[in-house]
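Handout, section 4.2: multi-component inputs.
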Amino acid sequence: MKRVLLTLSVALCSVSAWAQPTLVRVHDAATNQPTISKEIYGHFSEHLGTCIYGGLWVGEASSIPNVEGYRTDVLEALKALEIPVLRWPGGCFADEYHWRDGIGPRSERPVMVNSNWGGTVEDNSFGTHEFLNLCEKLGCEPYISGNVGSGSVEEMAKWVEYMTAENGPMAELRKQNGREKPWKVKYIGVGNESWGCGGSMRPEYYADLYRRYATYCREFNGNRLYKVASGASDYDYNWTEVMMKQIGRRMHGLSLHYYTIRNWSDKGSATEFDAAEYYRTLGKALEIEPVLQRHIALMDSYDPEQRIGLLVDEWGTWFDEEPGTIRGHLYQQNTLRDAMVAALTFHVFHRYADRVRMANIAQIANVLQSVVLTRGEEMVLTPTYHAFYLYKPHMGATRVPLDYTTTEREVSKTRRVPALSATASRATDGSLNISLVNPDLEQEQRLVLQFDALQAREVQGALLTADKITDYNDFGRENKVGLVPFKGAKVTAKGVEVTLPAKSIVTLSIR
Ligand code: AHR
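Output:
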């Protein structure tokens, strides 16, 4: 990987020193900077709990307002986010999903037991057409996760043909089912977590299966596929090494999953936590950086030209399920802490933008770190939703390197949380956008932004914070967490002076 251009000097010191002003040098004249792939702001939707049924899809006959079966409120919220890519149908579900069960008249589709997630019985009313039409409505790329664990090579090959061929038997079947033109499908995942729920395979065995399945994922009528191999979880560097060695350039992308799980038997409450637990969560979230570094170093040694993308196609917080909800449905609330995790993680992805080409937060609705939660007719936008909204200017922008020195809070022997985290990019409209995170629960942060080239004339910003770090938005009451205009930045002779409130996330647009 190319040198990481953000130089972050750190010093360990007491919390009181966190209030010192910080000089942030913005190298806005730097050249040869990578594009921050817009797909880094991608999403993931699995047949799990009420992510699909109830979250995205209610069916045309529902009394919940909908457009052709898709919830109107969720559709509008996701359109406003301009989501670039949506992964489906799993997750673990993908390796038990047989796509033919989800096409044709809905009344004739077989029911199935979702054995991964609570044994819920599903009627397959949301299938290939419903998913790909949703992506078209949202204007996003579909990312199909194919079944390697319990599906055949032929099944996957025919699925690709059904979705993307203009002519031939699969295209005819699709046309009979009401879709004349093929869809455009770029991303195809060849299995998911093949070391675990996707088949409990050894990496050497999976690598050979990948080669076999991927061979028959054909490109029809100019549809170019981007084939993604099932990757490692967290610290499994051996998996990445075997993939690079045995698959190499036969894959376009290799996935990685990273969650902030404390421990599997006690993940902690999503809403009830103290300051120590808050910082611990941020420390675990930030540990994605050394994890990425090691996976990337391995990829670099086999692929120095960086042709193969690293796709963090599942990431986010994973807490205990909310009391009273169905076990196995992974429903959790979402506080300002989740927004902090999201923002800090975006900064890490930006730092490795030359290798990290996609990331998909888990998951889009009602599961884990969702951007929307629904209950019957109601919907709330979570703090994580607002973090995604705040970072929209960085999607597809060119990274701008920064230099600053910050202090750090030690949360464990190996984990630290910086007093300030910053990232910057230049959008195609020429605007310079800088996002700043002050994770401290008590102290505000003062800083000065100095530019190599820009003579700043105007600064505007938006702020995401709340009274308490445990605040969240819930049904039937006024929202506690949302975006407001930011008044704490001004252009001065020194550059742009900023006062960041405690526990805040800000994006500034500077001209
Ligand atoms: O996102 C929930 C689950 O986490 C996914 O189904 C699986 O891939 C991962 O273990």
